[in-house]
Amino acid sequence: MVKFIAIVCIVAIQIAFLVEGHRHGGWEGGRGNGFGSHQGGRRPSRPFRPCDHSSSGPAQNATCNGQTNEQIVKTFFQGLFGDKNFTVIDEYIVEDFIQHNPIVPDGREGLRAFATGALAGAPKSQIEFWRTASVGNMVWLHTGTVNLEAGTNNGNASVGVDIFRVENCKLVEHWDVLQDVTGPFANSHPMN
């Protein structure tokens, strides 16, 4: 639980740096690996590189065909991960989709290849959206799911925070943090 909270905090700090860097005319280089480092040999360290969010802001909060950015993201997420409907990839994902999850390739086709493999044979389910938030063109989802890959954690549930950037009614960028729900637990608080 502590590890999950720490990861969520690090992601929040990274986003705060992105927003502040954008507000002040960009990010000054020379900061080293900083928050972009991953310790413990899990994957190679990559320098923290803020993305160009020049189109972010309140104007992106307008509706698309009557849907807010938050509704668009939730519809996509339920469609793909709950309903196992791969056509939502074409409907909601841009061709040059930017993916920050290190095991999922960039691009619409990269997401399709990952999702079709990871979701193969998985039953339809209702995604539990515990918390959602949006600011400008950024949308955060705090969800509960069953693990996607067969044999992973014996099918135990996991919780996650997914962050999407939306432009022109399409999802253009994605970050996530995931944690398996396994015991023993140090407290009695649910993860939702």
Give an overview of the whole structure.
The chain is α+β, with helices and mostly antiparallel strands. The protein has two domains: 37 residues; 119 residues, Nuclear Transport Factor 2, Chain: A (Roll), CATH 3.10.450.50. 28% of the residues lie in helices and 24% in strands. It is built from four helices and five strands. A five-stranded mixed beta sheet has the order 1-5-4-3-2, sandwiched between helices. It is globular and about 45 Å long. About 29% of the residues have low confidence.
What Rg is obtained from the alpha carbons, in whole angstroms? Answer: 17 Å
**Dominant shape:** globular
Q: Termini, distance in Å? A: 12 Å
Instruction: Specify the CATH architecture of the largest domain.
Output: Roll
Just give the CATH class of the largest domain: Alpha Beta
* Stretches with pLDDT under 50, minimum 5 residues: 4-13, 15-60
Strand arrangement, major sheet: 1-5-4-3-2
**Biggest beta-sheet profile:** 5 strands, mixed
The overall strand count is 5
**Which percent range fits the helix content?**
25-40%
Structural class: alpha+beta
Count of spatially separate domains: 2
Quickly count the helices: 4
Query: Proportion of β residues?
Result: 15-25%
What's the structural blueprint in terms of helices and strands?
Blueprint: H1 2-23, H2 69-82, H3 87-92, E1 93-99, H4 108-118, E2 128-135, E3 138-146, E4 157-167, E5 170-180
Parallel strand pairs: 1-5
Antiparallel strand pairs: 2-3, 3-4, 4-5
